[in-house]
Design brief:
This protein is α/β, with parallel strands linked by helices. The protein is 34% helix and 19% strand. α2 (46-61) packs across α3 (71-92).
Length: 361
């Protein structure tokens, strides 16, 4: 096993907060690049954490109130701030400068908390997003692996895969905005030869074709139904025209040269409560398979949110890559900025403003 000094290398670009929940205590361990680790006993316990996870899930299921004022969700996010995130942020002030990146490495029940969205949610209140740019990692070694660089071609191979009407779904569940979304992505990317763009939709978006696109392209954008199989997490899948593209299919591939994946599908970053210590979901599965930087969703996302966030994200990403070349290491900041722009739009409910999360480098 690696020695601690080797694991500290994972914190080279910012501190990592490992969250540990057990029957005896709930703790946060802050791992910095050059300093000794800091251990914090959090003012919560396993039962309270389980109650909070349940409260968050119930709050998200409820309809948005007027102007997106979701009282139950705000209450849960406040509780998460007080019991989990605020004690960590207070200790980060001497380690990480304001506006820099941090990585959450949750275990157990912490896997089901949208830690990036914690805050006081009141006038002039504090929140983690005001102070830091949050990303997640399933493990320290996964983050170290995601930072390994490869020789890159001058032209980025980018595949946009969309399926609006997968096998077994009725016309009522057809995703109406898949085609416009993929065309929007195309319009926001650098022009050839900087990016070589492939679009796969409708009858062409089969499991076999999607697997080939995964193999041949190092940048990916999925716009489709995504399902979480709680009984068999490895059967969680992107739904294609003929049959599902499962997490098991993905994890059997070598995607170690892949830089980025945007998962514009429902529940792509939701784990399984029955196995909370195993981060088995579509976004983490792509990262384990080698994709360095992944955007996923914590719960159901609406078409309106996707359209706005996709536009803001790719515009930000292009703007942050000043030389016109895509850089996956700018994805977390691009998402952070996109989410802040959504927060300024009063007609976007709170649950939709915080639904996307970043995993990886």
């Amino acid at each position: 096993p690696p020695v601690f000094a080797d694991l500290q290398e994972a914190a080279r670009d910012g501190p990592i907060i490992v969250l540990v929940a057990s029957k005896s205590s709930c703790d946060a361990i802050i791992i910095a690049h050059t300093q000794p680790p800091t251990s914090i006993q959090l003012p919560t316990d396993f039962e309270k954490l389980a109650t909070l996870v349940h409260a968050l899930r119930e709050a998200v299921r409820k309809d948005a109130g007027p102007k997106g004022n979701q009282t139950a969700l705000i209450k849960a996010l406040r509780k998460m701030w007080n019991d989990v995130v605020c004690p960590v942020v207070e200790n980060l002030s001497t380690i990480a400068r304001r506006g820099s990146r941090i990585w959450w490495c949750p275990t157990s029940l912490f896997n089901f908390l949208p830690l990036h969205a914690a805050g006081e949610y009141r006038a002039n209140g504090e929140s983690v997003s005001q102070k830091y740019i949050s990303s997640y990692t399933p493990s320290l070694t996964a983050l170290m692996r995601a930072r390994r660089s490869h020789d890159r071609s001058s032209s980025v191979p980018f595949a946009a895969i969309g399926q609006n009407c997968p096998a077994g779904h009725s016309s009522e569940s057809t995703l109406k905005f898949v085609e416009p979304e993929l065309e929007l992505v195309r319009s926001l990317l650098p022009h050839p030869p900087a990016v070589s763009f492939t679009k796969i939709t409708s009858d062409d978006a089969t499991k076999k074709r999607a697997l080939r696109a995964l193999q041949d392209n190092t940048w990916l954008h999925f716009a489709c139904h995504g399902t979480q199989n709680y009984g068999e997490p490895f059967m969680s899948a992107f739904l294609m025209r003929d049959q599902p593209l499962s997490l098991l299919d993905i994890t059997q591939m070598d995607l170690s040269r892949h830089d980025f994946a945007f998962l514009s599908a429902c529940e792509t970053a939701v784990g399984d409560l029955a196995t909370p210590d195993e981060v088995i979901h579509l976004a983490a599965g792509l990262q384990f398979a080698g994709v360095k930087s992944v955007l996923g969703t914590s719960w159901k996302v609406t078409d309106a949110t996707v359209q706005r966030l996709v536009k803001a994200f790719y515009e930000n990403l292009y703007g942050l890559c000043g030389n016109g070349r895509l850089n996956f290491k700018r994805a977390a900041l691009a998402l952070h900025q996109a989410v802040h722009s959504l927060a300024c739009e009063k007609d976007v409910p709170l649950d939709q403003r915080i639904v996307f999360m970043h995993i990886g480098a």
